[in-house]
Amino acid sequence: MPRPDPTGSDAPALTRLGYGAANVGNLFRELTDDQAWAILDAAWESGIRYFDTAPHYGLGLSERRLGAFLRTKPRDEFVISTKAGRLLRPNPDDDGGLDLAADFHVRTTLRREWDFSEAGIRASLDESLERLGIDRIDILYLHDPERHDLDLALQEAFPALEQLRAEGAVDAIGIGSMTADALAAGVRGADLDLIMIAGRYTLLEQPAADEVLPACHERGTGVVAASVFNSGLLAKDEPTRDDRYEYGRMPEPLWQHLQRIVAVCRAHDVPLPAAAVQFALRDPAVRSVVVGGSRPEQLRRNAELMEVDIPGGLWDDLAAEGLIR
Asked: Which of 13, 45, 186, 229 is the most interior residue, by most CB within 10 Å?
């Protein structure tokens, strides 16, 4: 069921668990249309009604597949967000290869072009609507502005988003980033309804607790927590030293920190992934946790983890040992 918005903003109601649709854009491995549909169907059957995508994901493939699926569902029963900032344009340098530099197994017939101008933001929304094939997008985030020009985002892109919201073209606007500084700048520098924190507020790491979450509390900005499994590291009960962390090997101090978290979860008989998926929701600004998944069983499992009863003593012990804020 949709979770009431504790921040008091006018942003759409979100389910506690959402699906981030990068995987159906062929992130890390190729999926057929049928496989992608089965994943989305598992998400829907598990009660997920908030779906997030972006033009970046598979050079538009994620939006096309997600839109095809959602067009079979009543429009008033789901919330969808996508992102702006990168336009997709024909790639004159396409050599028949794959977009592996961005980790997507799709042909490079298109390329991404940054555009934070008002015209670019409007074009991004229009083109996303066309790829999705639906009548409206509920939430529009500015995607990774720090990777292009954060100052330009504050000067041009965010005002353009605010204008789109004022015109009723979207219901809510925000920023999606994995950089705490960019998120804090967005909250303080624009009138945002939501932010999507990717990997910076998790059971393992909470740098967003320093400035981002206090700014959200102060301004009444809602939060969506994404990448809560830290690249899949927290998605199993017993992580191994060779598991991928971000884009490489986990630093030794962080590995030792994780081992202490695992020990506390084990002492309370709580699966590590359950604690990971529910952790962010302890903060009153967090309205939804968005997870990915490249197999239907992963979506079903994540929905089950969200319902695991976690004793308050687990959080108390983690805090007492300095393992969480």
From this structure: 186
